[in-house]
Design brief:
alpha+beta, 3-stranded mixed β-sheet, 6 strands
């Protein structure tokens, strides 16, 4: 399976503007710029998209891991905070809250650690990855 996205950039790095589009059409000429990346401008940025990808991948992998442990999650909410400093992504921190009937906190922590280490986006990122979990 191959997935794709396209970036079009016009102009200089600081004054220019770009658009991002994805194969699925979920993003279609979505704006990004210097100000949306390094300030608080309108639009998205690569780090925000990496955070979304990591949170989504992690939550899905966690659901599979929990299923392998013979539980069914009622809900999983994952947040990813990407740290971008000195021109590099240096950290990805995952925070997850889960409702999993019958699962102990220890089992949930074990499942979270497994998903943190083994989701495909975690494996892709060459950075420090950490997580914290709350079983509701």
């Amino acid at each position: 399976m191959i997935r794709n996205a396209t970036a079009v950039w016009n102009g200089s790095g600081k004054e220019g503007k770009g658009q991002l589009s994805t194969q699925s059409g979920t993003l279609s000429q979505t704006q990004y710029s210097f100000s949306s990346r390094f300030e608080n401008g309108t639009g998205t940025n690569p780090e925000e998209l990496v955070a979304a990808a990591h949170a989504g991948c992690f939550a899905m992998k966690l659901s599979f891991v929990i299923g392998e442990m013979k539980f069914t999650p009622e809900s999983l909410e994952a947040r990813c905070d990407i740290t971008f400093e000195n021109g590099a992504v240096t950290k990805s921190h995952l925070t997850v809250k889960g409702k999993v009937p019958g699962m102990s906190k220890e089992q949930f922590a074990e499942a979270v650690k497994d998903a943190e280490q083994n989701c495909p986006i975690s494996k892709l990122l060459n950075t420090a990855i950490s997580s914290e979990a709350t079983l509701l």
